[in-house]
Amino acid sequence: MGGEVPAPEKFLSYTTCGSTSCITEGVPPKRRPTGTPANLSAPGSNAAASAKAEERRAKRVAAAEEARRELAARQRRSRLLGVGAIILAVVVVVAIVVAVGLLHSDKGAKTTAASDEVISGVTSIPAATFDKVGAGNIKTLPSAITADPLTADGKPRMLYVGAEYCPYCAAERWSVVAALARFGTFAGLGQTASTPKDVFPNTPTLSFHGSSYTSQYISFSGYEIEDTNGKPLDTLTSDDNTLVQKYNAPPYVGTGDTAGSIPFIAMFGSYVSQGASYSPDLFKGMTHAEVANAMQDPTTDVAKNVDAMANFFSAIICKATDGQPGDVCTSSGVQAAAAKLPTT
To answer: Do 333 and 255 belong together in one domain?
Structure first.
């Protein structure tokens, strides 16, 4: 009898595919260790699988925790950026408000009633001070004209036209008030400063707006056509406007491009002046009280200009009043100024 033929070994079918075809090959099965049932794992394999599974779980937990922390960090950064943007927006708004405030902070000084100290200093300058300064440092003098007499209420009349914003008006008023105080009395004078937006900013000065003047010798009208911020104040009468249009221009004062300039002063039909007689820079950095005090001292630059010009105005007034009052018109200071006045 022949020997038993062993059953042929069974191969596993394994297929691989390329880009254009597939190949099937037979692969012999791996031999299991002797004594290991086909449906059981090798000894120790369960413990290893459990350990690997635990390791994978731990890694997943760690990854999830890391993702959670990263998300929380991003959320915190977003909140901080949002708060920062709000703060930045607030800062920008505040900066704009401050900038706008600064742009509008250059409004002119508010006109108030002149203080007693200032009024007393300007209107009670000692005769000795006027005499000491004489004609002073004045180089720009009023122009002599031939015109119809300017009068009001039967008295020679002096007309002033200026504006509170004007630095040249600010300078000249000190002399006008000092001179007129020798012939009469003011009431209601204001105290202000020229505009901060022009040359010689914030020049301290007085204001004729709302004031009155009483004198037995002359009549005075003081117009302030605009306030420190350029808003309308006093309106000239029709007759005064006609007078200003005629005489506040060449050939009486200035040149062609200065016609209509202020301050303009018409005096009794015999003299007119345009502009300041000295530089407003004279008052730079001074308070009203300091100006008034300096006018009392003949050694100061203020007195040598302001008081000296007051002597010139006084000399012109004395021509209109036939030398009255005598103590003023015959004083050495007024006489020194009168000798230098231009004539027609």
So the answer is: yes
* 0.85 exceeded by pTM: no
> DSSP character for 219?
E
In the three-class reduction of DSSP (H, G, I as helix; E, B as strand; rest coil), residue 207 is classed as: strand
| Residue 203 identity (one-letter amino acid) | T
Residue 75 domain boundaries = 64-105
Question: Both 100 and 168 in a single domain?
Answer: no
Characterize 83-106 residue by residue with b for buried, 16 or more Cβ atoms within 10 angstroms of its Cβ, and e for exposed.
eeeeeeeeeeeeeeeeeeeeeeee
Cα gap 208→188, rounded to integer Å: 8
Let me know: does 137 contact 299? Beta carbons within 8 Å.
no
Are 92 and 161 in a shared domain?
Answer: no
Q: 271 in helix, strand or coil?
A: strand
Overall domain count for the chain: 2
- C-alpha 48: how far from chain center: 84
Q: Tell me the per-residue pLDDT of 57-95, one tens digit each, with 9 for 90 and over.
A: 777 777 777 777 777 777 776 665 655 556 666 655 545
Same domain, 204 and 299: yes
Helix (H, G, I), strand (E, B) or coil at 113: strand
Among 105, 135, 155, the domain-final residue is: 105
Lookup: tokens for 133? 């300064």
Q: Whole-angstrom Cα distance, residue 309 to residue 125?
A: 13
Q: Compute how many other C-beta atoms are within 10 angstroms of the C-beta atom of residue 193.
A: 23
pLDDT tens per residue across span 233-259: 999 999 999 999 999 999 999 887 899
Residue 82 placed within a domain: yes
Token reading at 105: 């902070």
Do 96 and 173 belong together in one domain? no
- Which residue type, as a one-letter code, is found at position 13? S
Choosing from 75, 105, 135, the residue where a domain stops is 105
184 and 129 share one domain: yes
Q: What's the rounded Cα separation, in Å, for the pair 69 and 64?
A: 9
Helix 308-320 with 167-180: angle, nearest 10 deg = 60
Q: Residue 129 and residue 296: Cα distance in Å, rounded?
A: 7
